[in-house]
Amino acid sequence: MQALREEIPPSAAAGPAIVELRGVSKVYDGRVEALRAVDLAFPEGALTTLLGPSGCGKTTLLKIIAGLLEPSAGEVFVQGARVTGPGAERAFVFQDFALLPWATVLRNVAFGLELRGTARAAREETARHYIAQVGLSGFEDSYPHELSGGMRQRVGLARALAVDAHVLLMDEPFSAVDEQTRRKFQEDLLRLRELEKKTFIFVTHSIEEAVYVSDRIVLLSRRPGRVSQVVVPEIARDAAPDEIRRDPHYLDTVEEIWRGLRQYVE
Amino acid sequence: MKQTAGQPAGRTAPPPAPAAPAGGDRVLWWRLASVALFCGAWEVAGQIPINYAFPPFSHTLAAFFAMVADGSMGRAYLSTLQPLLLGVAISALLGVGLGVVMGLRRDVEWLAAPVFIVLQAAPVAALIPLITFIYGIGLTAKVLAVCIMALPVVVLNSYKAVRNVNPSLVAMCRSFQGTRLQVVLKVVVPDASPVIFAGLRLGVAAGFIGVVLAELLITPTGIGDLITYHRAVADYAEMYATIASIILFSALTLGLLQRLEVAVFRPERKAAA
Question: Which of A15, A28, A96, A241 could form a disulfide with A32 if both were Cys (CB 3.0 to 4.6 A apart)?
Fold first, then answer.
């Protein structure tokens, strides 16, 4: 999180897109229209947040990018290839962690590699590396029910990192943990970004969280979800976390986004 | 008479111990105390006696050891275990297999679910004369009796277990490119296993009912023969010993099954205990 970062990743349109959505729509059961003709490009190496009121289809959008849901219309491209299902270049972090309760932390983190048929020794070595990376060393043999909510999500994050995907899709990853853990998590996420150089697509309903962690924020309108605005917070991230949270620019951006979203809430 | 004997004895049976929680020593003492209390009450009731056909606990225990010593108990169990094990094995394999497939596939569910729901609701003991009519009085009829008792509960539990698997875990497995087979073997079955095993335990219990019913209703063999014979010649202590032994045996089997489940599928429970 410190001064490692000289250049803030290129804003908005700059940088080649690694994920592209073209006219993506989603209608559930022929009745509920969740998304309508969404066109979006996600620049490589950036952390882009999908932000919007609950029920705006942001999680649906993320699951479509993940290949877990099929769009009713439109196409998704990742690294130029059309998405037809889950792929090795994408990894998902779940809101409810989705850890196997009968498996140890080690096996949970290695699970993506286990599914790919990686040999046991190799996948456990990788898993140990990422367990250390997210600060869970010493908990390799614990079971999920022995961990706190925040620690469980670290396991979920380590599992996603372990498969070495280019794009990390995070579905409200911090919404099920308490506020203190959440802040620590946000700071850790920024540090991990430095280390891993991946593209992150992040779904949240917290404006502060979005402004704090994102290079780009995509505001979605209320159902049916459409892109209503793209905000690029120009925040100097080489400052200390506390300073950023007090930075007038940070506060202004939060306010600006709130004004944009307010109409959907009332 | 069988009824009155079965009920109190059913309560003695050590409850199929759920993996003893921390402080298990104290729990164990309470359980032993409860067993001792029951046996004591039985002894007193038998000594009064509340009924000339109700033997005290000590006589029953003595009769039990005498029957073990003269080999009649062993022979009876050997003969009863045959249809029981066959029937339970068939019900377990077929039931879990069918239940899992029903949980995974709608078409199989529509095809098979109504049959088992009706079977579960029906008093299947009424079918036993019918089985005798078709399959005679041999082993087949007894195995079938065990199966019709055990199969529905095993199938329906497995099916509901699979239906209620955490969808988030399935999505997780798919998102990491798990194949359909991997999703089933690495997520669906382990996640469903507690409910599947609950069904198996109920199925084994129902299987015990099935085999005793068959031995009492079709032809007296094994345990059924011992009960019928000792009742006929008014050896009530022997009769009670037989009944109590089959109840204990059934309870112990169920307890072991639970241990097996925890050991094989749920290591985290073992760690927690």
Answer: A28
Question: Which domains does chain A possess?
Answer: 17-89+171-265 (3.40.50.300), 100-164 (no CATH)
Secondary structure element (H or E) that encloses residue A43, with its range = strand A32-43
So what CATH class is B64-272?
mainly alpha
Taking alpha carbons only, the member of A187, A127, A175 closest to residue A150 is A175
Tokens of B40: 């004591």
* Encoded tokens for B268: 């985290």
DSSP count for chain B of H helices, then E strands: 13, 0
Q: Half-sphere exposure of A257 toward its Cβ, with a 13 Å CA cutoff?
A: 28
* Residue B232 contacts A where some CB pair is shorter than 8 Å: no
B contacts of A96 (beta carbons < 8 Å): 168
Please tell me the distance from the alpha carbon of residue B74 to that of residue B85, in angstroms, as a whole number: 16
What gap in Å lies between CA B78 and CA B72, rounded to an integer? Answer: 10
Tokens of A91: 């990894």
Please tell me which of the candidates A101, A103, A111 has its beta carbon nearest to residue B176: A111
Residue A32 is given by DSSP the state E
| Residues B137-155: b if buried by 16+ CB within 10 A, e if exposed | eebebbbbbbbbbbbbbbb
Judge whether B167 is closer than 8 Å to chain A, CB to CB: no
Pairing of strands A216-220, A47-51: parallel
Q: Does B28 touch chain A (CB under 8 A)?
A: no
> What ipTM was reported for this prediction?
0.85
Looking at residue B1, what is its pLDDT?
36
Instruction: Match 């087949």 to its residue by tokens.
Output: B140
The pTM of this model reads 0.79
The per-residue pLDDT string of chain B (273 residues; one tens digit each, 9 = 90 and over) reads 334 433 343 334 444 444 445 556 788 899 899 999 999 999 999 888 888 888 999 999 999 999 999 999 999 999 999 999 999 999 999 999 999 999 999 999 999 999 998 988 888 778 888 888 888 888 899 999 999 999 999 999 999 999 999 999 999 999 999 999 999 999 999 999 889 988 999 999 999 999 998 998 888 888 999 999 999 998 899 999 999 999 999 999 988 888 887 777 777 776 554
CA pair distance A110, A131, nearest whole angstrom: 10
